Amino acid sequence: xxxxxxxxxxxxxxxxxxxxxxxxxxxxxxxxxxxxxxxxxxxxxxxxxxxxxxxxxxxxxxxxxxxxxxxxxxxxxxxxxxxxxxxxxxxxxxxxxxxxxxxxxxxxxxxxxxxxxxxxxxxxxxxxxxxxxxxxxxxxxxxxxxxxxxxxxxxxxxxxxxxxxxxxxxxxxxxxxxxxxxxxxxxxxxxxxxxxxxxxxxxxxxxxxxxxxxxxxxxxxxxxxxxxxxxxxxxxxxxxxxxxxxxxxxxxxxxxxxxxxxxxxxxxxxxxxxxxxxxxxxxxxxxxxxxxxxxxxxxxxxxxxxxxxxxxxxxxxxxxxxxxxxxxxxxxxxxxxxxxxxxxxxxxxxxxxxxxxxxxxxxxxxxxxxxxxxxxxxxxxxxxxxxxxxxxxxxxxxxxxxxxxxxxxxxxxxxxxxxxxxxxxxxxxxxxxxxxxxxxxxxxxxxxxxxxxxxxxxxxxxxxxxxxxxxxxxxxxxxxxxxxxxxxxxxxxxxxxxxxxxxxxxxxxxxxxxxxxxxxxxxxxxxxxxxxxxxxxxxxxxxxxxxxxxxxxxxxxxxxxxxxxxxxxxxxxxxxxxxxxxxxxxxxxxxxxxxxxxxxxxxxxxxxxxxxxxxxxxxxxxxxxxxxxxxxxxxxxxxxxxxxxxxxxxxxxxxxxxxxxxxxxxxxxxxxxxxxxxxxxxxxxxxxxxxxxxxxxxxxxxxxxxxxxxxxxxxxxxxxxxxxxxxxxxxxxxxxxxxxxxxxxxxxxxxxxxxxxxx
Length: 759
What we know:
This protein is α+β, with helices and mostly antiparallel strands.
């Protein structure tokens, strides 16, 4: 099928503004009479609040207001699934970043002085730091109802029988780190209040319509009088899916009647912001001597920190994917989402998949080594195909590209010439290795959760269109992809389409820009709206041309006769009549489909549509220092039909860098509930200068339910990068990486031991 705009490399509309610095992000916004706001954070990771004295701060010249829990007019709690996090704490703090008071003042300097002047009396409480101990034997409680927020159990097949007949049983424990999102723009925003009482909050957000609800609930303010705008956003990766500063901004503006701006410093962002869930994963795998997987037993502990946020959903996704992209007929899985005093964890790109993919893919390489099998061949032997039964017991009815991604990787020149390349180093202390990994990521929210997207299309008098979608473009390039889909569906030039998103006043609720759903769900909604618009155009053209609707077609911005393209009307000629009738704006919606299989007590499981990825990584390890240099990474994503070829390459390059950081260096180190890496000189992230050579070769396994065959790819593109790198380290050194990140110090310690049991 020939496309005009789909499957092309189309330059993003925001490219010029972002490269020249003309784009104004949330932290760039300013309004007349604007105040600065700030948040007083807890001094202790776990303590009772015995008293709050704001008198000195309130008396300071230039300080306009100081607010505590007593000033929260509505529900003093927020959270996507459970509203267990206080807007402002009143009796207890549960992590070092808990908000206790907020200040608005004439300058940022005055805000800092006022925050320092607030005196809070605390009574420290015992800490809950180890998620395993928190479940098994810790008497201290983060929340009165217990330390386990979510317990998920799934069992299929005959697990004990499968282990009994296995030729090999491999059992290991894997641990993962607390990774931060590292977005270029920290949590920032401005709130304003107009003379009609319209409260507008500009902020970085994945889901403005949900923010609108949470602000309304906490401030006891009419939802229809709240506007949330989230465009443009300086990066998200999941870290701006939950409330960050939105309610505090709105509260200060309502109390002062003036615009208020809050911008978190990088240090504050690192300490208080959402992180990737650290996990302890106990994995037991059974296989035949030929390498056929028989069973998996998984016990998983996920540290969600002080509050729930999306911890339960992250746990369930981890449970779903803890057997990898493979046919495993017998599984027993139990997962604990645990409260601790270790900061807060929430949504992050991959959403629980990264942790378990690292564990399972390491397990696969260790199985291959013990059985004397090629690591790629053992994956091909067990990889899921369309029509297979997945480990959770549901049928993979939709497209599954696992085998094709692995087959393409097996023919890559770097893989075919791997032994020659590994032998090519001239320095004996440098060892080379090549690793492979694969994974799957569900598209959408999954079974049991409402997942609907909406879009509107408005026809203007000049024949151009405005497409409105609620899902914000948080940097991944939604806008250009939406424009491509709309232009293709409307049979017009892409320059005749304007796309707006991330604004509760101007766009319909389309759900969150998360869960690899933005293009899949909103793209389908756009196509459905476009179909309605074309029907209206054809109906009007049929009247003018005295033809039946069935005799008409749309092409290049015109409605023409199927038999004679010279007979027709342009969209602009038809627009006036539709506008006059008030039918020039149409809506479309799409409900993300889910499988029939229902897993009791596990909302979000399973998924129907999956994206996939296979990665090959080439590394060089210095045996004297433990340093690992990633030389090259191949990415073979299964994203269905690619909407924007430029976009998928950008996603892959970014995924490689983020996955490399997760593998080698990124970790918010905590001790006693306190962050030991509170800035970018101690929390180490790779930069563009560290990026390895990267190749991207998509496998376009078309998805019948997707817009033009597309699936989401933003998360799948990342999940297998880390284990590909750690498996390459295993290939180079014989050391199995079982704990992330594998820093030079950790790797060197194992190399010096010489036993190479794993790090």
